[in-house]
Predict the structure.
Amino acid sequence: FRTGTSFPITATTYSITVGGGGAGSVPSSGSDSIFSTITSNGGGNGGTASPVTPAGTGGSGGGGAGNNVALTQPGAAGNTPPTSPPQGNPGGNGFGSDTTASAQVGGGGGGSSSSGTNGTSSVGGPGGNGTSSTYSTGSPTTYSGGGGGGARVSPGIAGSGGPGGGGNGAVSTNGTPGTTNTGGGGGGGGNPGSNGGNGGSGIVVIRYQSF
């Protein structure tokens, strides 16, 4: 999530790119949203347990997966490449167990305002919070929330998506997609036969004063 104020624009044609959300089935990172010199980088993909895929870096980082060994799969860094102020935050760590399938849970994806939460034994991490803005409608709208971490099987509990379009994680099934035109991350899936939710597409807002 990035903004620019007092940005000089003229009556001409501009090339604008609205980034697409990453695919939860691959998994892949989201693509960038661009206006002029301002680029909001796509969010990083979430990690997977089988086959093992590390979480990806991005505007906000993906959450790590829970796996069937007693190891922590780390979440990935956000604000990549770095901007000032930061455009996003890191994802949370997954939680692994080699004895209890319901304890294998993912970490939440990073949001633009806060990091994703680490998964703990049997509880997936919630996604990080997005950022509230009045630019698009004049009323507060929240963008760029992180997706919640999934849980392999019940009684494990999946993490909720972060405010700002983040999709909820799921138990044993596919994760919930991020909300379109918010830049929200997709929620993590459950067992190895399930997919994460797709990321939500981005949005570019140009607001100007009319005299």
About this structure: The CA atoms of residues 131 and 142 lie 5 Å apart. Strands lie at 16-17, 33-35, 38-40, 48-49, 52-53, 131-133, 141-143.
